[in-house]
Every structure is written in structure tokens, then in C-alpha cells.
UniProtKB/TrEMBL annotation:
This is Mutator-like transposase domain-containing protein. The keyword Signal applies. Residues 1-17 form the signal peptide. Keywords: Signal. The keyword DNA-binding does not apply. Pfam families: Mutator. It comes from the Eukaryota. Residues 23-153 form the Mutator-like transposase domain.
Length: 319
């Protein structure tokens, strides 16, 4: 890869981040930004390494991992309050069920990835979901919800049509009782600080990095031992397929001295077309909703299993 001068490129954080930063100048470019999942070890190592004197690295958060913090925080809140004798979950109206936690997480994730211009704007977007969820007829809190006839807020949508807003009961699938909302609010406040939101303004994710890793593991599974040559070969083939599709693999095979005929090319084109069609299909709202339902059902099954077994069989740092 021939680059003239030094170009500024963002780096998707990996376990070899510090190594990559240290040798980037040899290849005529430099990294400026780390997209992190919350683990600061690599970032601290880069700061100590100081590969570009006078130009400190900028750390940004992966919006997917930030959204997971809300889910974890709400689940831990339920457990902590239960030990104190306070029940936030259950089947009562306004209780903090696992399905409701999944909805709040999806709304938080959508807003935190919306690429806002300022921390104030992003915080307003994130807190409006909580306000909308705990609104009641006596105290509606929809002032920050989107306006207009296409608004997702039933209250603002009714106003846009010139109608009297309907009662709140049964209108919001993520309704949270005011008592529960007061317990939940500190979790939202912790996840809407200036320090955190300033690293989320561009709405960056590690999806591309995770997708590349998945292709590498398909060719070289993590649970099986492999030598260095096989790992390098799997990584090279994954990068070729990730950047150029099947055409990249065909070029790789051709460079290795193997013939690529017309049948191989046409088959690769069909596989690329199928992959694109599947990716577009996964963006449909109906399939997104279905994936959320499956995720919630899987979590409930895991909870039931842990209850029968007397506790989790594995937890980070627990054993």
C-alpha cells in the first residue's frame, strides 16, 4: 500500500493496538482515533508508548458496548434492590421486566448512534426515552419527544393531527411506573455524563472489526490450535474476502498460482449477490423485532437454567 506523506486514519481497537500504532510510521501513515469497547488497557499502553509526539490519541466509545452497559446496569439494579426488599421486576404494570429492559436498551442504542453535534443534544435524546416511558396522565413528559405527524411518540403525534392526546395507559410498550423510574434514573445519569457522551458523538461501532474477526475464525477456529502460517493464511484470505468479496479471494488464489475459470467467477458473483441481499433483509424492522424477541427468550431460558443449577456456572472474575 503506497501512501504519500502521513495520512490520518481511525483505528478500530484490537488486542494488537499498541503494536500497530508503534509501527505505523514505517508504513507512511498514522492512527488518530481508538474505538474502544470500554477496556482502557490498550489505550493506556498507547499513551505510554507515545508513538506520535505532540499528537495524543483520541478515544471513542463503541455505541454497541455503551448500550450494553444500560442493560447490565438495569439488571444489576433489579438484583440490588431485591436484596433490599424492593421489587422492581415482576408482572405488575410498570414493572421493569426483561423485555422492557431490552426495549430501553434498543432505544438507547439507536439514540447514542444518531451522530449528534453536541453532548447536550445527545443527552436530551437519551433522557427523553425515560421521560416518555414514565409519563402518566397527571404528569406527561413529552416535551423532548420528536414533533410532527411521523413522530414515534403517540402524544406528540396526536397534537400534530390536532387531536386530544389519548390516555397513557396501555399506549407505551416500555411504560415504567414512576416509583421504578426514580430507581432507574441514576443508571441513566451515570450513562449520560459529559465524559462518556463526548466519546459517542460520532456514533462509531466495532461492527466492521467484529465482522472481519468472524471471517478469520471461520477459516481458523479459535478453539483449535493452529500454527503461524495457517493463521497468516486465514487472515489474508479473510481480509481479501472482507474488502473485495469473492473477487478478492479469486485474486488471492490466482496470485498463488492456481487457475480461476469462468465458473469460479460466476459462482463468486452469485455468492456476493446473495450476501448483499441477506444483509438488506436483516435491516427490515420485522426481522429486527424478531431478533430482539429471540434475545429476550434466550436470556429468560438462561435465567431459568441458572436458577435450577443454583447460580451461574461462569462469570468474569467470579471464580
Amino acid at each position: 500500500m503506497n501512501l504519500r506523506g502521513i495520512q490520518l486514519l481511525p483505528l478500530i481497537l484490537s488486542c494488537w493496538g499498541a503494536v500497530l500504532w508503534g509501527r505505523s510510521l514505517e508504513r507512511k501513515f498514522r492512527y488518530t482515533t481508538i474505538i474502544s469497547d470500554g477496556d482502557s488497557k490498550t489505550y493506556n499502553e498507547i499513551i505510554k508508548l507515545n508513538p506520535y509526539p505532540g499528537a495524543e490519541a483520541v478515544k471513542e466509545e463503541c455505541t454497541n458496548h455503551v448500550a450494553k452497559r444500560l442493560r447490565t446496569g438495569l439488571r444489576n439494579l433489579i438484583s440490588a434492590e431485591k436484596k433490599k426488599g424492593n421489587t422492581l421486576g415482576g408482572k405488575k404494570a410498570g414493572a421493569l421486566t426483561q423485555q422492557k429492559i431490552g426495549l430501553l436498551q434498543s432505544y438507547y442504542k439507536k439514540d447514542v448512534a444518531s451522530k449528534c453535534n453536541s453532548v447536550v443534544e445527545l443527552r436530551r435524546k437519551l433522557l427523553r426515552t425515560l421521560k416518555h416511558s414514565c409519563s402518566i396522565d397527571d404528569k406527561p413528559q413529552h416535551e423532548d419527544c420528536p414533533l410532527g405527524k411521523d413522530s414515534w411518540c403517540f402524544f406528540q403525534r396526536a397534537i400534530a393531527y390536532g387531536k386530544v392526546p389519548p390516555p397513557h395507559q396501555g399506549k407505551s410498550s416500555c411504560y415504567v411506573a414512576p416509583r421504578v423510574a426514580e430507581a432507574v434514573r441514576p443508571v441513566y445519569e451515570r450513562l449520560t455524563t459529559d465524559a462518556l457522551l463526548s466519546r459517542c458523538l460520532r456514533g462509531m461501532t466495532q461492527n466492521a472489526n467484529e465482522s472481519l474477526h468472524a471471517q478469520i475464525w471461520q477459516r481458523c477456529p479459535k478453539h483449535l490450535f493452529a500454527g503461524r502460517k495457517r493463521i497468516e493464511l486465514a487472515t489474508t484470505m479473510a481480509i481479501a474476502n472482507f474488502n473485495c468479496g469473492r473477487l478478492g479471494l479469486q485474486q488471492f488464489i490466482s496470485a498463488a498460482g492456481c487457475n480461476v475459470n469462468s465458473n469460479t467467477i460466476s459462482r463468486g458473483q452469485r455468492r456476493d449477490a446473495k450476501r448483499v441481499a441477506q444483509a438488506q433483509m436483516r435491516q427490515l424492522e420485522s426481522l429486527k423485532k424478531r431478533r430482539l424477541e429471540i434475545s429476550i427468550a434466550t436470556f429468560r431460558a438462561q435465567q431459568k437454567y441458572e436458577k435450577l443449577e443454583g447460580g451461574p456456572s461462569y462469570a468474569s472474575g467470579a471464580f
